[in-house]
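Researcher: Please predict.
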Amino acid sequence: MDTKNPSAPPCAPSRPTGKNHPHRRPNSGVSGVVHDNTRHDTRFTVIGNHLAQHRELSLLAIGLSVHIQSLPAGAPVDIKTLAKRFPEGADRISAALRELEAHGYLRRPRERTPAGRIVTRTVSCNQPGRHAEGHPDRRPQPQQERQPRPEPQPGHSDHVTHPAHSTTSAPPKERTPRKPLPAVPQPAYKGPELLQAATDLLAGLRRSDPDLLLSACDTAHLAPGVAAWLERDASLTAVRHALISDLPPEGMRRPAALLAHRLITQLPPPAPYRPPAPQSEPTHIRHPLQNCDGCDRAFRSPERGRCRDCAPAGLQTVRV
């Protein structure tokens, strides 16, 4: 009875506690994504799900924000650099940057350098609404006190309905209205041909730099300033060079304001006075040759008749 049977199969091991759930294989037909993850030890960037699963951002804006957050501090992230790095054009990248700026993932403040030049700084925020420590305006907000739970009244049921805790949120900040463009110089005569030439020049600036894509309203505001330059004998090439030369390499937040500033500060003086050319004295009119009706000699006269010798006194035709 105590002899062991070596050919009997061993008993199956019991399932350990804490893992009492079946294992599903990736190819078991279950729908949805299956993650095959490996823990990163070096060269990784932490991205929050609030960005990766954002409901309002486009896929291009999400990917662009991830790329910017993975770059080291000081790396260039202007539109030209990003357009060279990715196959998307400058217009789509510019629109994606505006999306990130609208949702707080990007800030582009303008600062003045010690040399007096205005530059645009790009600040990437990995979590909008949360700020880094150490900034005077970036302190943690105090937590609200919890309401004490009301005690049940005698004679009533033990079931107590608690009122909903209303969270007092700060009123939404009013968006600062956009600063209007400065007034540009006005021409003395707003001819339609002059304004059309100025409008065509402004509309063609985007071919030189994608950041100079102006709206119809900004173009209508700047066109009289360009017309004032043209009225002062400035050529189209000279006006275009004055507007697009030495642009900020990191992009422009309001290109129309920059163009308006240049039209005002670099306005050329009026053209020098040129006296009108003196009118030449009228030349003598040479009449055609006519044959005299009396002596058949040739003489010059506006009409046929007699020459000076054959004409009666007082009716002589004067030769010219």
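Model: The longest strand covers residues 110-112.
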